[in-house]
Amino acid sequence: MGRGVRRFFLFLILLVALGVRLRGITNPLLDNQAWRQADTASMSSHMLGHLTDIPNVFLPQLNYDGITPQRVELEFPFFSYLLAWTWTLFGWADIWGRLWSVVLSLATVGGIYDLGRRMFTDRAGLLAAAIYALMPLSIYYGRVVMPEPMAQAWSIWALAMIWRWRTQEGRGSWKVGLLMAGAILAKLPQLMLFPVAIMLGFWPVDPKRVGQLIRYSMIVIIPPMVYYLWVHFQVSSSSQFVSGILTEQVSKTGNLDWKLLSRNIHSGFTDSILLLSGAGLCRLIFFRSPARWALLVWVSIAVLYIGVVCVRIPLDYYLVPVLPLTALLSAYALDGIPCQPGIVLGLVLLVLNNRGSYTYLTPKYQWNPEYLSQARWIKDHTSASSVLVLSDPPPMTFYYAHRVGFRLTQVGDEENPTQILQQFPGDYFVQLPQNGYKELFWKNVRKSYPEIGPGIFDLKSPRHN
What is the pTM of this model? Predict the structure, then answer.
């Protein structure tokens, strides 16, 4: 396959990948994963005006659980920092975050192509890029305002670059090490790719390169260790989210939701891709490949990751780190078909067979406009220093209203709202949209406080019965 032909097909794949990721590009951050998207954007809003205040600007801050923004233990806010600079230069708008995610997602497609062509063949690289571009989970999480697109792009290019570094026998392992460290800092699950990078770059181990291996490992591991320790001790125990997930949701919990995990895998990857990736794994086992052992290690780690983490936290975005491996194995299976028409026919049948799977994405783009109208009312009619108390945990209202405050978690229908709300130094109580349950509780709220806006109650002017 000539260089010009490869570039044409890669351009075509990137164009298709761009097109499918532009769906819902103008949506506010209220569609699926609204909570995490609003958190990412709210961290950016707290960076505005402090972008050169290093290192404190890199301590993530969220709007809830206090009368001021609260420092929290999260991954290094690369994406939020980039978005804050974009807002500073071009003005605030949700679409900037989505556009950056799309750009990073396209960079991931390019990285998978580069990695696939170097490990296998040019054709396999193009097939892997096409498959990754069209997987449902890849499409949706390639346009969300979350750390996933950046972590995915950096980790794939870190693998591609260390393979290139190894085959070209060049110097500068610190550069590829820093890229992998950045991926781990951007999203902790990318740590699963560190052993894969070691295998790609240094297996089998040459005694002459042990020093390079040690240097590379230190460059990858030390920055994440320093950052996560620093941010861990800078926040209160209730705000230690990363370590809390590891200890509470992964280490201690015994809740294994295999049914939901299976549904997320089948819907997000599609059955055809899963079948192809299985065929690619079989081919990898029985046929020699320069990257065979690295990919087998990757498969083992992915299986362990799914069985330990994803089954305990059955949210589909936890499966995103597995997407590139699935694409590469599927491409390796298709690359075993010797004739070019067979490849084209296989891809066409793949798309036709999976066209119904993309209906899985439709609900993810839906959002409730009441959240936005209610938040805008608060922003326009209340003081900028006012403190909100939300009726439920979802915190998106804080971001769109540009306010801080508290959230209620579980409230009984017969509980006295006055006793509950007096525990918070709030100015307004907000009944979030779609909160129609606990009729007696809300009846008592209306008796106790005046409703001054759409579901907004003035806590500073209680009614005296």
Answer: 0.92
